[in-house]
């Protein structure tokens, strides 16, 4: 299995530098539509058909022969793409120095990120395959204390909890990377894939004891088949999801023979194949199949064996995790009847989690497709999901569905914003905030207090749109997105908006701040973990790549730092860059995260950690991560 050697060194030792492997997962959105005035009606849910599947229970295969027969005879095509679509961050107010935490969707459910802090140390992924442990606080003691290098692995995320550090990554083979980079035709994908062992793409999970930060010690090393999808940490358990192709093509003469390849798991050197009778499925067809494996690993108890559960699923996934359940959504298209045009439908799996115990509990479906993890939410025993059905160029509508824990229908609000598509969704208690877009940004406030009758309470039309919505207390919402010309979809720049939703029937835009010109971007538009906000301090910061002319050359990159207040609005405190002597197109110095410890704001890039005082942003020091 590639990439099993782990090297840990102190500051003074040299480490080999590996070429950074990038794994990019993107979602493209195409947007047009009609005006919003015709889309609400009475605001009451429309009648709906029994759209949730009732005859597709989850059950394990009885034999490998049954699994192979199902996969090879029901797939609607022989190739698939793997996608992962897509908060409560703020400060930690314990007795120690307050510090920010990763901006996550659900309180108590941590999400892996490329940078973590525990209030004294910063843990960051650098140069693709190395995790650095940085003594960060107090600033006058700041230095790199250890490096953990994992050859052959492209690291994807970290968890840090007390004296445990969890490092995760993928090991794509060089042969496959070469093909991907050359963008060769599919025949070469298939031929190269068939020549590789089962470990062609694996997900690696490593747990380190960091009670001595200068000498990390490897405790657990788990490898599972497939590419990394996502992960969460609840209390002492880490849940990692990976997805592997179910079918491999072997060349026989001048033809290719499809063969089902079962996933495998390796725990601390002990390897096993996951048997067909351990794999759950629903009796539905899809364009192609993947094995989605969920690994549950207790990071405290070394004697406790990790557990796993595998599902035979469809082509792509949107994953939401609550304190009690993992929801895996599989958008696809199906024809309702012979000769009819395909319609969007999303299949949903519910997996109950309790510590390292995993159990398949329910399966259902809804019309349309979710945008990302924020399109789903569990609240008071119900799953709420926002979907778009169809496409703006051919007719689309947006909907919210409420399901019980059996994933059976309870209520629905359908037909919202016909001709538009969802750009952002955020569920907050018994409300949902929804953004759709064509030429204006309809910002909807939706009431979910009665699960059987969701209804629109109010909406606001303004130019532009939000890609990410963040709660500011109960009565305010921050939006990060794009400003456009009034009545046009032409971008003008990056927009930060503050909405007042005290009067739910009349939401108002009370402040906005425009950054740069068309083409200015931020990772927050696609990755909420790049967003720092602390409500008590009124502190907001996130990375920006700036152009000052429409779609012109980039002239600056770094973190924009703001004060946000419902009284004074959005005020720029300053900007922090890691480039000395002017901007260069070198991603190694791009600020990727901002965090705070006490009254120090830290910005992190591949090469540096810079420290600035709060709120003046006076520079306190800078750590070169690779001297």
Q: What's a concise summary of this model?
A:
The protein has 627 residues and is mainly beta. It is built from three helices and 46 strands.
Counted by DSSP, the helix tally is 3
Q: How is the main sheet built? A: 7 strands, mixed
Give the termini distance in whole angstroms: 32 Å
Give the averaged pLDDT, no decimals: 84
Secondary-structure-based class equals mainly beta
Radius of gyration: 24 Å
Strand proportion: over 45%
Identify low-pLDDT runs.
11-55, 77-88, 174-199
Shape: globular
Helix content: under 10%
Q: Biggest sheet: strands side by side, in what order?
A: 2-20-22-21-15-14-5
DSSP, total strands? 46
Care to describe what's here?
The protein contains three helices and 46 strands. With 627 residues, it is mostly beta strands. The strands form eleven sheets. Strands 2-20-22-21-15-14-5 form a seven-stranded mixed beta sheet, with no helix packed on it. The longest helix has 11 residues, at 64-74. The radius of gyration is 24 Å and the shape is globular.
């Amino acid at each position: 299995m590639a990439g099993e050697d782990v090297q840990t060194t102190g500051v003074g030792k040299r480490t080999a530098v590996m070429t950074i492997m990038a794994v990019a997962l993107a979602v493209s959105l195409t947007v047009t539509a009609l005006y919003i005035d015709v889309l609400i009606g009475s605001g009451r849910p429309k009648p709906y058909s029994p759209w949730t599947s009732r005859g597709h229970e989850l059950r394990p295969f009885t034999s490998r022969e049954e699994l192979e027969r199902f996969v090879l005879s029901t797939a609607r095509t022989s190739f698939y793409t793997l996608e992962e679509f897509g908060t409560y961050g703020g400060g930690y107010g314990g007795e120690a120095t307050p510090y920010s935490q990763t901006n996550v969707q659900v309180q108590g459910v941590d999400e892996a990120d490329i940078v973590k802090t525990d209030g004294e140390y910063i843990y960051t992924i650098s140069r693709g395959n190395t995790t650095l442990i940085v003594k960060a606080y107090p600033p006058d003691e700041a230095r790199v204390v250890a490096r953990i290098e994992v050859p052959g692995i492209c690291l994807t995320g970290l968890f840090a909890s007390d004296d445990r550090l969890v490092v995760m990554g993928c090991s794509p083979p060089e042969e496959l990377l070469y093909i991907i980079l050359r963008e060769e035709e599919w025949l070469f994908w298939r031929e190269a894939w068939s020549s590789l062992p089962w470990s062609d793409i694996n997900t690696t999970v490593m747990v380190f004891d960091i009670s001595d930060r200068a000498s990390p010690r490897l405790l657990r090393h788990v490898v599972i088949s497939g590419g990394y999808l996502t992960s969460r940490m609840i209390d002492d358990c880490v849940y990692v999801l990976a997805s592997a192709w179910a079918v491999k093509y072997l060349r026989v003469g001048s033809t290719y023979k499809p063969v089902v390849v079962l996933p495998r798991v390796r725990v601390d050197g002990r390897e096993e194949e996951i048997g067909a009778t351990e794999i759950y499925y629903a009796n539905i067809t899809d364009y192609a199949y993947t094995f989605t494996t969920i690994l549950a690993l207790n990071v405290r108890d070394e004697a406790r064996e990790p557990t796993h559960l595998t599902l035979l699923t469809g082509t792509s996934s949107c994953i939401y995790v609550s304190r009690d359940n993992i929801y895996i959504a599989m958008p696809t298209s199906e024809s309702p009847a012979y000769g009819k045009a395909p319609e969007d439908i999303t299949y949903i799996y519910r997996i109950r989690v309790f510590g390292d115990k995993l159990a398949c509990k329910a399966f259902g479906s809804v019309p349309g497709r979710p945008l990302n993890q924020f399109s789903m939410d569990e609240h008071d025993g119900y799953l709420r999901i926002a979907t778009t059905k169809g496409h703006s160029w051919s007719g689309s509508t947006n909907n919210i569905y409420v399901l019980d824990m059996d994933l059976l229908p309870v209520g629905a609000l359908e037909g919202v914003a016909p001709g538009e598509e969802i750009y952002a969704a955020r569920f907050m208690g018994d409300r949902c905030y929804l953004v759709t877009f064509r030429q204006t940004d309809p910002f909807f406030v939706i009431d979910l207090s009665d699960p059987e009758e969701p209804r629109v309470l109010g909406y606001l039309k303004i130019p532009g749109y939000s890609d990410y919505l963040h709660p500011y207390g109960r009565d305010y919402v921050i939006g990060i997105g794009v400003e456009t010309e009034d009545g046009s979809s032409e971008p003008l720049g990056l927009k930060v908006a503050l909405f007042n939703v005290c009067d739910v029937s009349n939401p108002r835009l009370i402040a906005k701040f425009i950054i740069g010109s068309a083409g200015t971007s931020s990772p927050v538009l696609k990755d909420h973990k790049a967003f720092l906000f602390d409500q008590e301090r009124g502190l907001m910061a996130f990375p920006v790549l700036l152009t000052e002319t429409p779609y012109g050359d980039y002239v600056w990159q770094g973190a924009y730092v703001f004060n946000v207040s419902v009284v004074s609005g959005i005020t720029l405190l300053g900007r922090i860059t890691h480039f000395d002597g002017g901007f260069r197109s070198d991603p190694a110095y791009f600020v990727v995260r901002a965090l705070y410890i006490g009254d120090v704001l830290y910005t992190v890039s591949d090469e540096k950690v810079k420290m600035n005082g709060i709120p003046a942003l006076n520079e306190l020091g800078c750590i070169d991560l690779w001297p």
